[in-house]
Amino acid sequence: MTVASETVVEFSSRFARAFPELAVPWHAAEFPDARLLVLNEPLAVELGLDPTALRAGNGVGLLTGNRLPASAMPVAQAYAGHQFGGYSPVLGDGRALLLGEIATPDGRLRDLHLKGSGRTPFARGGDGLAAIGPMLREFLISEAMHALGVPTTRALAVTTTGVPVQRETVLPGAVLARVAASHLRVGTFQYAAAAGDDDLVRRLVAAALERHYPHLADADNPSLSLLEAVVHAQASLIARWVLVGFVHGVMNTDNMTISGETIDYGPCAFMEAFDPASVYSSIDLQGRYAFGRQSRIGEWNLARLAEALLPTIDADTDRAVELAQNALSRYADAFNAAWSEGMRVKLGIPADVDEAVTTALSTDLVSLLEIGRVDYTGFFRRLADAARGEAGAAHELFADPEPFNLWAQRWLALGPDAAAMDARNPVYIPRNHVVEEALDAATAGDLEPFARLLAVVRSPFVEREGCERFARPAPDSFGPYRTFCGT
Predict the structure, then answer these.
(1) Of 130, 157, 180, which residue sits at a domain end?
(2) Catalytic annotation, residues
(3) C-alpha torsion sign, points 157, 161, 166, 169
(4) Are 197 and 159 in the same domain?
(5) 251 touches 294 (CB < 8 A)
(6) Which of 119, 237, 308, 348 lies in disulfide reach of 189, CB 3.0 to 4.6 Å?
(7) 192 and 324 share one domain
(8) Is 226 within 8 Å of 216 (Cβ atoms)?
(9) Which residue, 180, 201, 219, sits at the end of a domain?
(10) Distance CA 30, CA 163 (A)
(11) Is 365 a domain residue?
(12) How far apart are CA 130 and CA 155, in angstroms?
């Protein structure tokens, strides 16, 4: 690493200074042939960064970790985690670095984090590198999620490294620069708790409250208040995943943020034919993280956070368990409330309709979609046409339309608002076959398909002429879809 002669950004390096127990000082691998591939200019401006400067030599050096300002203290973060239910006491950033925190013009702190920047002491035999395809996938899917209103980390840039990466074949290498409210995870607290360091856990609690839940900073029981806040944030987040048909794919506890943002887009995808058993991850052989299990896994992960916090919730273990269980018991209600309200809006049902009526309609509809294996995203856009008196488009999606017709009579009697439905139900999501086409082309050196798809998913609610293929599900010939973590 060299120190940049012209500073593109100043870092506060708060995490590195406050938590040396969780931060291993480290530097990115050298990438002398690095070249900027994709820059998220709107995000750069939001962060108070100059896109022109990021495209220049020092900017590219920043985005690969090779030319950093003196204020940067790059570290590999330590954390533990349950991976597919099995506990790993030491995971950490095996191919990633936290460069530090940026203060945005409106006063918020945002982490700038690299992925694919080379091996760290946590690499566990991995090469520490990343290929272009998976890094562009995270850029694309996180931008789509942001446009859909789902809390998420966001990609600032993807930079090619000039270093080949060996996977199933040899692929061009890349580094992703990612922005997050923070990288505090359930696994961060698990790591501290496993060390038996209650003081470290308390310091993490205080930092998390200050950073993400400042209104709770003076709580009488900080650890319990943090648990309650994260329970609510994660219930709301996972409900939003379900509402847009998103399948995360690797809901390990080290991939669950304290802030309530979606993080680590590895083997992820958007469901097309509605099926709660939908799994797109090549490594989820038992379907642990299937679409329909995400809510329950979220609750399971939060129980692991509660376990890590127990000694700091109350000195009396029985009392601590009782308080933690009370906090966890609110998860199901919070998830159900968020999902029911989201479905009410997706269905255009007026707010004054009794909640029980809305919930019953939503639950019955989900059953119909599952039986018919109906394209989830396309259905809701066509349903808005039915609210305008054009029921045929939605009707045609069902092999046996009669049950849907009976359901639609109940729904139409409530006076659904078609315009409100159009504002919430996307025309465009990252359709899996189109994503693969774009990533394959980009890996071969053609970024145009990726740029077209990115522009479409960044404005998902507005139907545009000439973009019809982006709204259609994959053809039958596309076959079973599997995604990979990229390591």
Answers:
(1) 180
(2) 254
(3) positive
(4) no
(5) yes
(6) 308
(7) yes
(8) yes
(9) 180
(10) 10
(11) no
(12) 15
